[in-house]
Amino acid sequence: MESVRSKPIKYFVFDFDSTFTQVEALDVLCEIALKDNPKREEVLAEVKRITNSCMNGEISFRESLESRLALLPAHQDHLPELVEKLQKSVSPSFERNREFFKNFSDRIYVISNGFKDFILPVIREYGIADSHVFANEFTFDDEGNITGFDASNLLSTDEGKVAVIRDLDLNGDVYVIGDGYNDYKIKAAGFANKFYAFTENIERDVVIDKADHVTPSLDEFLYLNKMNTAISYPKNRIKVLLLENIHPDAARRLKEEGYQVETHDAALDEEELAEKIKSVSVLGIRSKTQVTAKVLENANRLLAIGAFCIGTNQIDLTACSKKGIAVFNAPYSNTRSVVELAIGEIIMLMRGITDKSAGMHQGMWGKSAKNSNEIRGKKLGIVGYGNIGSQLSVLAENMGMDVYYYDIVDKLALGNATKCNSLEELLGQVDVVTLHVDGRADNKQFFGANDFAAMKPGALFLNLSRGFVVDVAVLKEHILTGRIRGAAVDVFPAEPKSNEEEFVSELRELPNVILTPHIGGSTEEAQENIGEFVPGKIMEYINTGSSFLSVNFPNVQLPLLQNAHRLMHIHHNKPGVLANISQVLLKYHINVVGQYLKTNEDIGYVIIDIDKAYSDEVIKELRAIENTIRFRVLY
């Protein structure tokens, strides 16, 4: 009878500096030793230059080691502080995969051109035996000063790593994970099956070019080898596309989390986005990009959309829900910026400042108090009393204005604001009308001829909400006749995709009209806030399943996942789905440790935390349940 051939044992060989830890230990030791040295920065720069030259294969390791130690006035008393810093600088993906090191400690080796003096205290915390760590050793003089290294140690030579792995004579498949050229040499010499260029901390082109695979994190390596237990899916495989010059803090946060991020300054048209979206898991946009049903037909990998603004009318929310795509926006982050612009424009229009300023630039000295008024005592009419309208109400009242407001939803008045029962009631008595309505389809041409006719003669008009809610032609007509004394418009029915396109509008060159390029929320403070808030909500959704503050998903706020796997089932809100989920769990005797459910009129969102031990068949059957839109496993 023919014997069954067993699979070869897998051995894992890791570098230490810039792989196991995020830093080069000798660089850190140099920083410690040179703490009060006036030439500190100069010496540090030279040490780092030598380190990089060696890692890129430009100089020999022995030359690099000798040169760096010659610059290093270090003492053995510096080593405890170094070890403490290194323990706090372990690569995040190594830290979260402690279980891997514990489970495979007998097959894991650390082979480093660094020094055992600082490597062993760090490695021991991960369950790796001292006998599996190979590195150099410092030499000291009688006063404890570091004088050099043990020159007889193989790892002080150029081919040291190759020699060590050769002498180990590991009987199985050897996988090397490191960031330096010397790590690649093990594979080049024929003593490793694969070399993985580790890029979580540094990317060296010469090393990447030689690698069998680039692994931006240990998660990626474990996922490729079907050994991932810490997280269900490597974040470096999740592609994020950010359009319309979104604040760089957003890209920074997402990159720090491990995502693959691509940015564009301008919007993409429907055809461009429909093609680009095919490989994207997270899309970030502002107000110009239109995420249509046609675009979403190609969005089979898309998990979430972030609108880095308040409005979401540019996104087909119904189509998103049908595909199980969660949409998040920034309902509060730029409120103050919009309100301040509105206050400033009201003052400017009351004083006719823009026309006076334009005249001054042409040499005209038009000093006059005619049609120039304070805002104190004037009546402000706010149409739409949401986050922006209500905050504007407070600030305007503090500046002496009498505030009136109208909203289709019953809203509590703030301060001394007066609620109006109809739009007509408000329009007939206020000196300034400002729109702050949302972008729902029903609001198209919301404010038209009858509404302008109902305003007090000589009133001011502001629109900082949505371009399509106002009949612009009628507004122009009333400005030219003088019935509307002045206007400020920040949003338009058609807007350029980028700053390079011409802005075309019939409101151009009208008297006492302030036109701004959709900048209500475009302050550095607001964009920074949005750049923090929206990525935070998206990462929370991807990492935990929490859909809190999503504009189209049932809102579920979830606890942190602990010692369990989380099953997330998004489905059409149809009868029988929950019963079918329960039947699958019962069939396989699954122990449920937590369960959460929310529905809206379109979809249901079920989150179930279960014990880690279960059959793959459970996942297959849950995915196959009728009316399932999307299913994810998270751990």
Characterize the structure shown.
With 635 residues, this protein is of the alpha/beta class. It is built from 25 helices and 24 strands. The protein has a seven-stranded parallel sheet. A six-stranded parallel sheet has the order 3-2-1-6-7-8, sandwiched between helices. Helix 2 crosses helix 5, helix 3 (40-55) packs antiparallel against helix 4 and helix 13 (248-256) runs parallel beside helix 23 (524-544). The longest helix is centred in the C-terminal third of the chain and has 21 residues, at 524-544. The radius of gyration is 32 Å and the shape is globular. The model has no long low-confidence stretch (mean pLDDT 95).
Can you give me a brief rundown of this structure?
By secondary structure, the protein is an alpha/beta fold. It contains 25 helices and 24 strands. The strands form 5 sheets. It has a 7-stranded parallel sheet with strand order 16-15-14-17-18-19-20. A 6-stranded parallel sheet has the order 3-2-1-6-7-8, with helices on both faces. Strands 10-9-11-12-13 form a 5-stranded parallel sheet.
